[in-house]
Amino acid sequence: MRANNRFDTIIKGGIIYNGEGGRPYPGEIGIKDGKITAMATSLGESADNVVDARGAAVSPGFIDIHTHTDDNMFSAPLGDSKIYQGVTTDIAGNCGGSPFPGKKWENLDNFFGDMSAQQNGINLGSFVGQGQLREFVVGENDVRATTEQLERMKSILELQMEQGAMGISCGLEYTPGSYATNEEIAELCKVVAKYGGLFAIHMRNEDDRVEESVAESIDIARAAGVKLQISHLKAQNAANWHKAPALLRQIEQARAGGLDIAFDRYPYTAFSTGMSTFIPLSERQGTKDEIIARLKDDTISGKIGEYAMSRIKRLGGPQNVVVTSCKQEDNKRFIGLNVEECSKLTGKDPWPFIRDLLIEERVSVSIIGFAMTEENVKMFLSHPLGMPASDGSVYSPEGPLGQSMPHPRSYGTFPRFIGKYCREESLMSVAEAVKKCTMLPAERLGLKNRGLLIPGYQADIVVFDTEKIIDTATFAQPHQFAAGINEVLVNGVWTISNGSPTGNMGGGVLRRG
Length: 513
Ligand SMILES: [Zn+2]
What we know:
Helix content is 32%, strand content 20%. By secondary structure, it is an alpha/beta fold. Strand 19 (485-490) and strand 20 (493-497) form a beta hairpin. The longest helix has 17 residues, at 298-314. The radius of gyration is 23 Å and the shape is globular. The two termini are 32 Å apart. It binds zinc ion (ZN).
């Protein structure tokens, strides 16, 4: 090491997209001690590392504001599926679920402590999942929180915010978070607002009652005085596709009325969730054993089946629902097949098949549903308040995570957004697309020194080929890295070079601020 160099690393020969959405320009970036320390047309100096961008785009590393990466970092410390997209920061703990507070990790510091014991390729920040918090304090049942329980939730949440949580997330389609009253959620959001944190919501309903759910989300945020992020905005099922413009109007009006509101969306027309969402909320409370007992009870199961089949009908039929993960050896043959195909294979009707699978898998089955339209994806992504986010996780083709069939968004979101929607479909300029992947999410999260290429900011940087960047992961073969991502630096550490890992990692835990 030549410690007297002004820079550890210089990036040369690139076209700089600084994240603000303005015109790109040729220039060089000097990096020292993990930070950008100089930018100029020519720095005219040498450094230990010289990254030759060879005319490609140089932009801030992409920030994925909505992920479920959570404890997947322990199985894939490089953050493989993300860093190969140019993502340098993942925000975990979404849709009401976070790795803490719980038995394994009582708080954010405990979780981050374990993460810091290993080297990490990307930065990871986290929301506090309101469902997880409620389960920890109130339990899994459909009951009101007592005054004492609410105070306890608030004080635990306050501690997580002190430790650097990004805010709170809700998943009101899931239990037990959905058992909270809106007043209870607003009380928690007030704690988050005190710290300038963000309230991210997976709404109570994303199909037939989606307009009411947007209104409800806005009401909660207003009551608490908190910044609102609507997660994976959608109008699901053909019967609701026409509602997209109305949802955007609701959001615009709330913004005009003074609410700090925005939203994110993955660039795909299929969603991914748990098969347990085919069980009505009223029958989804309690322990897994209790839920399984209901599935085994002919009378209750019959009612659950009616609900499940009505939902599947709204989705367009069993051929639109694909099984993507199960754990039992016997059931792994269903992975990648749709429910219609599974029915034929087993000789069972769709509901008995689903019921038996849920029982055998102890309620944990992942599905993908094809229920959205391209037109709306484009409308949401091109809206000034919209930004791409994966709703996926860190995965790796190697190791245990490589055995599942995740939604391809975990591998493809950002390259697909830029390659398909920006380059091929001309929805916006590359500069505008980069802004949506960088400055916009950084602003929502209140990250003070990321999301832009400016001296003083952390050197989270991606070099990508604007002509080649594209996703390659598919529903049939999801574990495939994106194309066109040449170089990635995380906190100044050169982690991907010429599309391959260098073996050096510079990521780590990310606290708010
Ligand atoms: Zn969600």
